[in-house]
User: What shape does this take?
Amino acid sequence: MNDGVENTGKNRGTVVFDIGGTHMRAAYSADGETIGPVTVENTPQDFGAARDLLDRMAKEVSAGREVNLISVALAGTHEDGKVLSSKNLKGWDGADIGNAFADALPSTGVILNNDAAAACVGEAVKGAGVGYKIVGYITVGTGIGGARVVNGELDAEHYGSEPGKAILDAKTGSTFEDLASGKAIMKKYGKRLSEITDNGDLNHIADVMAAGLSNVVTAWSPDVLVIGGGAIVDSPHFVEVLRPKFKAMTEKSFPTAPKLKVAELGDRAGLIGALLLANSDK
Assistant: This one.
């Protein structure tokens, strides 16, 4: 399956990466419009081991074809091509992604964006956010991330948005991510969200999730809020528990809640967004 992506004519021969706390995905675009087959590997927590794997994956997906640019979407904050902090990739702090491919693809340009930001662009332009001017996106996986897109363009940010770091419990300092990420749910319940069937547990998780999402809406005021990530996409029963709680909580601040939609691009959202961001890179 190929996913059509608007092409500006700028970048052809592009390798795209989506690097999360659990998996790394890579694909190649020969034309700046479509991405080919996706290679998936577990994400090493040590960047030394990860660098070797990144090199191998870039070689594998490009298969000797021309590569003019590598566009990387990665969990955490970054600046000048370096990872500043990533809660779920502790061994990557300080990693120089800009020079990570020097052995495999020397002299190839590298751009770095937050993984949730890339997925947001993908969903806004080619997925669940199509037709909306202001799109908020929250991904719930190992951690919680998100971003906002306005008129198809990612909001300008210094480090990148980290809505998962919003504090929900002032007494303990616990964040949205600490309380409602896939990792947090597994730690508390011993199950993935998709495996939880107890109504009391589902309602408790939905209460916390609704509070976090309501805070996001209060800050971003989007036309639509798209929720994605493995924990959400695999749990349609949970989303139906969440919807009325989200609506009731959000309408304490606004006359109406924005539409809440589930992401449509699955685990290709970050790769599609990375290609779109490559095409718009100046």
